[in-house]
Design a protein that fits this description.
Layout: E1 2-3, E2 29-31, E3 35-39, H1 44-49, E4 54-60, E5 68-73, E6 79-83, E7 88-97, E8 103-104, E9 114-118, E10 124-131, E11 136-144, E12 148-158, E13 166-167, E14 175-181, E15 186-196, E16 201-210, E17 229-230, E18 264-265, E19 281-282, E20 284-287, H2 293-299, E21 306-309, E22 313-317, E23 328-336, E24 344-348, E25 356-359, E26 364-374, E27 391-395, E28 401-404, E29 408-409, E30 417-425, E31 429-439, E32 447-453, E33 458-462, E34 470-479, E35 484-488, E36 493-494
Parallel strand pairs: 1-2, 2-9, 18-19, 21-27
Antiparallel strand pairs: 3-6, 4-5, 4-7, 7-8, 7-9, 10-11, 11-14, 12-13, 12-15, 14-17, 15-16, 20-22, 22-25, 23-24, 23-26, 26-27, 28-30, 29-30, 30-33, 31-32, 31-34, 34-35, 34-36
Length: 516
């Protein structure tokens, strides 16, 4: 739907000559006004040919089940005016009456040229603010509306130590939660607003009293860190996260002074169980689905910091280093959708044991970083704006675009040569993306012509004597994430390699007539 907060709608419809109908149902326009004007433009030549006498506006409040005449105007008028009875979806159609009183288009069936959704009800926004321990507060929000515009979400907070309202940095979603520290304690207030596609705005406020935090817990010192940083809801509740895998391994605590747990990045795929927790190398990860093709080849590298996969669900495996006697207090995952320009708190690993289950909402490139807090409350600062991610994961679930061009067959002595041609494109192509097959029927069995090879656009195949006289050809294309497309020839190809031969089997003498 399109948002159209203004009162006017320009109906760019052409009133056609007899026999022509209006266009198919257009995209709805959403407004929060019950009364609106509908300007239109006409085809003057068409109106003159039919000697148009009047224009009729019909409206249907039930998606075309019934139509009613709403207004009649002369062709010289510039617009229709309509007063809606209430909220709902209204279909509009125009009929032209010619000089003989005949309607255009004729017949009882009308097709909408304009659809307007009237929505005067603001969205419902619920805010819940509650303490989650001394010096820490959690905000949850939920917005409801049939035509909600999540991009308009705005959340702000005010707490002791801040004179003005400060923005809560979250990914705009219909629901979610985030938390942040309030070292001084005191009264924390939040306010929020969100709009729908019609421009209606819903607002809400909430507040909570927070106990002062432990003075031993350090506050992030980076001047560019703006609290709060968004938590798990950038990717829920549409697709709930998988629970962390159970593990019997426990943190190993070595005697020594309290220290900040350290993390170092060596992203790679793993297939076995992690041992000796918590030494940590962050962001080694596996997917819930098998990795095939060149993605599997990429998995064998332990030095790369970027991976391409074809599933929205995957796991980040991590390993904690330098654990003091206080142990591990929490393991937090941060996510960036824009290569570190903005960071959001994705969530906390409940069992503080690798792996960290992750689910992202859609295809795209995501960066990740892990922060570990000791049992004494010491931790590295959250990633700052501009800080690059430790690992980048590109989620690509789109198969390559593939087109099989007509197969060309050689002539004469090259009749057994077929030139197979194709066109393919993909945002993340594999190094060797193309393979070729043939089969006597579309049901198979499919035999290999050429294994995965470079995308050269064509391949010349010399058909051997063992091939069937007619067969189908299949081209398959894959990308770096393991997505595969395939296209078959619509009709079987006839390749007759039989060379007809002849031999003399007898001599026949034709009788010569006698001269007598």
């Amino acid at each position: 739907m399109r948002r159209y907060p203004a009162l006017w709608f320009t109906w760019a419809c052409l009133l056609l000559a007899a026999g022509d109908g209006l266009a198919a149902a257009p995209a709805p326009i959403v407004t929060n006004k019950l009364r609106f004007r509908i300007p239109f433009r006409t085809d003057p030549a068409a109106l003159q040919r039919m000697n148009a006498r009047e224009l009729q506006l019909f409206v249907s409040p039930n998606r075309g089940a019934t139509w009613a005449l709403a207004q009649t105007i002369t062709p010289q008028a510039a617009r229709f005016e309509y007063q809606a009875a209430g909220d709902g979806e209204y279909w509009f159609a125009v009929r032209t009456i010619d000089g003989f009183g005949q309607p255009h288009p004729a017949g009882e069936q009308l097709e909408p040229g304009l659809i307007v959704v009237v929505d005067t009800v603001p969205p419902q926004l619920e805010l819940q603010l509650q303490p989650v321990g001394p010096g820490r507060v959690q905000l949850s929000w939920l917005a409801r509306d049939a035509a909600l515009d999540p991009a308009t979400l705005r959340l702000e907070y005010r707490q002791p130590g801040t004179a003005d309202w400060q923005p809560v940095s979250v990914l705009p979603k219909s629901s979610g939660q985030t938390s942040w520290s309030v070292p001084q304690g005191g009264l924390v207030a939040v306010r929020g607003s969100i709009a729908d596609l019609a421009g209606n705005q819903g607002m809400q406020q909430a507040q909570a009293s927070i106990l002062p935090g432990d003075p031993l817990l350090p506050r992030p010192s980076g001047s560019s860190v703006r609290e709060p940083i968004a938590e798990a809801d950038p990717f829920s509740p549409e697709a709930p996260l998988l629970p962390p895998r159970a593990s019997s391994a426990k943190p190993v605590i070595n005697p020594g002074p309290a220290a900040e747990p350290k993390t170092a990045m060596m992203p790679q795929f793993i297939s076995g169980n992690l041992a000796s927790r918590p030494e940590i190398t962050q962001d080694r990860w596996t997917t819930d689905e098998p990795v095939t093709g060149s993605a599997a080849a990429a998995a064998s590298s332990s030095l790369g910091r970027q991976r391409i996969i074809n599933t929205r669900r995957f796991q980040l495996n991590y390993k904690v280093d330098d654990v003091g006697p206080s142990g591990i207090g929490s393991v937090e995952l941060y996510i960036t959708p824009d290569n570190g320009r903005q960071w959001y708190r994705y969530g906390e690993d409940a069992d503080r044991t690798s792996p960290f289950d992750v689910e992202v909402p859609q295809d795209g490139e995501y960066g990740f970083a892990v922060r570990v807090r000791s049992g004494a409350g010491l931790a590295l600062d959250p990633p700052l704006p501009g800080e690059p991610p430790a690992i980048r994961v590109t989620v690509d679930q789109s198969a390559p675009k593939l087109e099989l061009l007509p197969v060309q067959q050689g002539q004469g002595t090259e009749m057994n040569q077929l030139v197979i041609r194709w066109r393919t494109s993909d945002a993340h192509p594999a190094e060797k993306p193309i393979s070729l097959y043939y089969a006597p029927t579309l049901e198979g069995p499919w035999e290999l012509i050429s294994g995965w090879r470079a995308d050269t656009g064509s391949f010349t195949w010399t058909v051997g004597p063992g091939a069937p006289p007619q067969f189908y050809v299949r081209v398959m294309a894959r990308d770096a994430a393991g997505n595969i497309s395939q296209v078959d020839t619509p009709q079987p190809l006839l390749v007759d390699l039989t060379r007809p031969s002849a031999r003399i089997v007898d001599v026949e003498v034709k009788p010569v007539p006698s001269p007598h």
